[in-house]
Write a structure and sequence with these properties.
elongated; 444 residues; zinc; MYND-type domain-containing protein; metal-binding; 11 helices; alpha+beta; single chain; five-stranded mixed sheet
């Protein structure tokens, strides 16, 4: 059964489940949104690491089971980043065993189901049925083989068929009946998967099916002749660069079109025309009132780990994926030429945390392993919730700029060390900070 075209509202909801939060009334075409969802899912598979160019011929890779030192497939298929690992650890310290609830986020559910499939493979390549609680949609699947790209990346070769309520295909009926008549139906693995999660899984399966070498023809059961051949890779959270690429909006805060004007009251939010501004007024009004007459201070920043040329650093971002070696060890800062941090906010205001570097400061681990530059309050960190911008401002760069912002932190912040403020990116290495409209404390 060919994949159903999803309404744009569903595509936007699926993108949001992956932390891709586009403008509410984005004018991106349906085709462009559909393409963005497919590309984002490719990125969550870290596809270019395994299949830099199509086609993929599974026979060119050894069997996962031939290497007895390989970890269980369940463990190998698990993917998480530093931020998620920290959140899970902190939750468990508080006695919360399951900090990520099921059936609340389609993308997180997909990752959980893939681990369930991996766990099933560890106990034999048995048939699998994924269906929603109301049994309105289901996917019949069997893992034919598991190949090894490397000792941390299994490639699951599968056949599958999608069915919807009152439309069970003849192939799926015969497939299920075959296990029932053989008395082996109890070996079938049943996984609860919401319809939204199935949309994501089907998109992965259909996209990967086209990436298989046409010469690859594995042995299938006679009841699987109508099934589609594909493969699955481990799926994890988007990395920082992908997050920036798919979230970037440099235009109207409502639709994303090029912004030609800004709010005349606060001067902070930009729009493409009067219609979008009028549409946004109800939600923008509280902030607009707060920003009206506000003072914005420009700042020039550097990357947070480049304040000490010649030092060695251990760069750890919350978006670094633990299993793929994203964490760079012992990087000589004097020999690296990093560009500016990606602008994931465009010209839209966003909340940042400003933290003065002090010997008594508490917060995330400092990005450079070694001695802090004195802890005397002569610099401060600025970062957003996603840590897509994580930068430092030095007093030596511009004392007047620095002191204006530091005064807000010391007089209005927690213990005079930390405060949340509104910010706007104004250039690759510059931003404006709102000095007199401090934000409520954020639970990041």
């Amino acid at each position: 059964m060919p994949p159903r075209t999803l309404p744009r509202e569903e595509i936007l909801a699926l993108l949001k489940s992956m932390d891709i939060d586009l403008p509410r009334r984005t004018k991106l075409s349906d085709a462009e949104l559909d393409k963005r969802l497919t590309r984002a899912l490719d990125s969550t598979q870290y596809l270019t690491r395994v299949v830099p160019t199509s086609p993929l011929d599974p026979t060119s890779y050894p069997s996962w089971f031939s290497d007895k030192s390989n970890k269980p497939i369940l463990e190998a298929i698990r993917r998480h980043n530093i931020g998620e690992a920290t959140m899970i650890h902190e939750s468990r310290m508080k006695g919360i065993d399951n900090p990520i609830p099921l059936y609340a986020n389609a993308f997180m559910d997909l990752r959980q189901s893939l681990m369930s499939i991996g766990n099933a493979c560890d106990n034999g390549l048995r048939p699998i049925v994924l269906q929603d609680p109301g049994q309105s949609s289901g996917i019949c699947m069997r893992v034919l083989d598991v190949r090894q790209f490397d000792n941390q990346t299994p490639i699951l070769i599968v056949v599958f068929q999608h069915n919807v309520e009152d439309s069970l295909s003849r192939g799926s009926f015969d497939w299920i009946s075959g296990y029932v008549s053989a008395g082996t139906a109890q070996t079938m693995i049943n996984i609860t998967a919401t319809v939204q999660e199935q949309h994501l899984l089907l998109r992965l399966l259909n996209s990967n099916s086209k990436r298989l070498a046409s010469s690859y023809i594995p042995k299938c059961a006679s009841t699987e002749s109508s099934f589609t051949l594909s493969f699955l890779l481990p799926v994890g959270p988007l990395g920082a660069l992908d997050m920036a690429k798919y979230n970037t909006n440099n235009g109207c805060s409502v639709c994303g079109d090029p912004a030609k004007q800004k709010c005349s009251r606060c001067g902070a939010v930009r729009y493409c025309d009067a219609a979008c501004q009028k549409e946004d007024w109800k939600s923008h009004r509280p902030l607009c009132t707060s920003w009206q007459g506000a003072t914005w201070q420009g700042l020039t920043f550097i990357l947070a780990d480049q304040y000490m040329p010649g030092a060695y650093s251990l760069r750890v971002s919350r978006y670094d994926t633990v299993q793929h070696g994203d964490i760079q060890k012992r990087v000589d800062l004097s020999k690296t030429n990093q560009g500016p941090p990606p602008n994931t906010h465009g010209t839209t205001p966003f909340i940042v945390k400003i933290q003065i570097n002090s010997s008594t400061a508490q917060g995330p681990a400092y990005p450079v392993i070694g001695q802090r530059p004195g802890g005397d309050g002569s610099d401060f960190l600025i970062y957003d919730q996603r840590r897509t911008i994580d930068v430092m401002v030095l007093r030596t760069a511009d004392a007047a700029q620095f002191d204006a912002v530091a005064e807000v932190v010391r007089t209005k912040g927690e213990r005079g060390l930390k405060v949340f403020c509104w910010a706007i990116r104004t250039g690759e290495w510059t931003m404006d900070i709102c000095l007199d409209r401090v934000c409520d404390w954020q639970k990041w």
